[in-house]
UniProtKB/TrEMBL annotation:
GO terms for cellular component: cytosol. This is Unannotated protein. Residues 1-22 are annotated as: Disordered. GO terms for biological process: thiamine metabolic process.
Amino acid sequence: MRAPSPAPTPGDPAPTPGGPDSFTAALWAAAAPVQGRILEHPFLAGLTDGSLPEDVFRTYVVQDSHYLKGFARALALAAGRATADDEIVFLATAGAEAITVEHELHAAFIADLGLSAEEVATTPRSPTTTAYVDFMLAHAAAGSSTDGLAAVLACFWIYREVGRALLAEGSPDPRYQRWIDTYAGDEFSAQVDRLLEIVDAHAPALGPDGRDRFAAIWLQGCRYEWRFWDAAWRGETWPV
């Protein structure tokens, strides 16, 4: 079994459009310990060496299908709160593309895993999926426009960096390699860079308190990302 890619050193930011002194670089530095825990998780190690049990991946795919619908709604809400035309277009388009991924990428996985669309639709959302989706929707609907950006940022950025880390390892399982390729791809990376540019553009107007609030929401999203993989690994269900 190959070891997963080494975890980033806490404080070392991933490359960002705004450079090493940008707000987004500070956000990444704050989240680096969580990202390290994510890259160490046995779910991701199992993706790269092909040992991830199929039933665990099946659980992940079903829950991710539910999650992406909520993610798309959160992006639509964030688009509705935005005021700049280019931000409205970006967020609305990203929401539409989240649904496209759900239909295309997950449809292929669902077929490969012997699932039906009805089985996916009727499987309840796990506690973690429910909490994560509700977290995003609450901030996007009831918070400020930048609260919504903070709530959806982790899904974009964490997945891009995980995809890049796992691409260096690859996977002998073509299904897992297809997942890695999707999130390590240039098209997805360009989306992440655009969102980071938007966040950095808003940062000066937020002020110290607003930047602290943004960072707290972002970090909570990062923690939910870890919990999402962990929930699939553990086969999390409602206790009653």
